[in-house]
Design a protein that fits this description.
By secondary structure, this protein is of the alpha+beta class. It is built from nine helices and 18 strands. Strands 10, 11, 14, 15, 16, 17 and 18 form a seven-stranded antiparallel beta sheet that branches. A five-stranded antiparallel beta sheet has the order 3-4-5-9-8. The protein starts with 15 loop residues before the first strand and ends with a helix.
Length: 343
């Protein structure tokens, strides 16, 4: 298993800042210092994704800095304190626990917000695995179903389904990878090969790995009292031809988690499941009429603080370890780590 000094099994329950539990006021005070980006001189190429700043190294490696930027509806909407650390450390946890299924791009975790990875050619397909019919985004199963569609992503769905019902078995619903500011385009599994996005053998390998990783995720999430509802995976190919799992795995950004204990009761009441993911934020925006088009409403401090606390709680439930915040504000610390790779 991968050694990760930032994932020592500290006894829960409480995450701590300066010796006391992280509360909403702690998070509120940290909001002005949320990590939006990392600005430093860099002698090699660099890129900026929705959430990660990418710093190239000349030897086929990359440094991925996971910032506190939060995106939804294919837009960066705000920044949430400690979110980047949660995502980076939680991904490291899952990469470690799925390496027997498929190789991944992680080489080291030199900092709570930084991953050193192998350079891979990313596949032009996002692999979405869904175990339930739910969601409010325009690509979500429930959103399409609620509009009257019954043939979605190449699957036929019967009448009479209700929001948040489980599917008979997990399904794969791929999308294209939209560029910044653009929406992903829905695909069927057959179209991935028909359009030449991936060859048939590689797509079969990716689908098998995705379903196996999802099953592993559901099993481990259940131990933490959570239901892994759906998730997004990204895959790529290393220079030697190896297909690899890349980006992030089973984080509150890439996945939907519900509280197992209250799921049945809330489903019977017609209420939304208790969640520990980005759906809380999506619902907040959807209730205000925003689903990705036009100018989004500004996130409130209360919303940002609640999202941060949910991310931290999700981390603790999934890993069984207390969240230990790193030095914050984070930019100076991260710059020191980045420059150490130039020595």
């Amino acid at each position: 298993m991968m050694t990760n000094k930032w994932l020592e099994p500290t006894p829960p329950p409480a995450a701590r800042v300066s010796g006391h539990p992280i509360g909403q006021e702690d998070v509120r005070r940290s909001i002005p210092y949320a990590l939006h980006t990392v600005e430093t001189d860099w002698p090699y190429a660099r890129e900026r994704g929705k959430v990660r700043d990418i710093f190239m190294l000349p030897d086929g490696r990359r440094l991925l800095v996971t910032t506190d930027r939060l995106s939804a509806f294919d837009r960066v909407l705000t920044a949430v304190p400690f979110k980047g650390q949660v995502l980076n450390q939680l991904s490291a946890f899952w990469f470690d626990r799925t390496a027997d299924i498929i190789p991944n791009h992680i080489l080291d975790i030199p900092d709570p917000n930084v991953a050193l990875v192998r350079e891979c050619e990313l596949f032009p397909v996002e692999v979405i695995v869904r175990g339930y019919i739910t969601g409010v985004t325009q690509t979500a199963l429930w959103y399409r179903y609620s509009l009257g569609e019954r043939y979605i992503y190449g699957y036929h769905f019967p009448d009479g389904l209700h929001k948040n019902d489980p599917l008979p078995e997990p399904i794969i619903t791929p999308t294209t990878k939209g560029r910044a500011g653009e929406h992903d385009e829905r695909l069927t599994c057959a179209e991935v090969v028909e359009r030449g996005l991936l060859d048939a053998a590689t797509w079969e390998q990716v689908q098998a790995a995705a379903l196996a990783i999802f099953k592993r995720g559901q099993e481990l999430a259940q131990r933490g009292g959570l239901i892994l509802v759906d998730t997004k995976y990204e895959f790529g190919r290393a220079p030697d031809g190896t297909v690899m799992l890349v980006d992030e795995v089973h984080t509150p950004d890439s996945s939907r988690f519900w509280v197992a204990e209250t799921y049945e009761e809330r489903l019977a009441q017609g209420a939304e499941p208790d969640n520990f993911d980005k759906e809380f934020l999506r619902l907040w925006y959807a209730e205000r009429g925003y689903r990705g088009d036009g100018e989004p409403p500004a996130a409130t401090e209360e919303l940002i603080a609640q999202v941060s606390q949910r991310y931290i709680a999700c981390y603790e439930k999934l890993t069984g370890a207390a969240f230990v915040p790193a030095e914050y504000p984070a930019e100076a610390r991260i710059i020191r780590v980045l420059r150490s790779f130039l020595s």
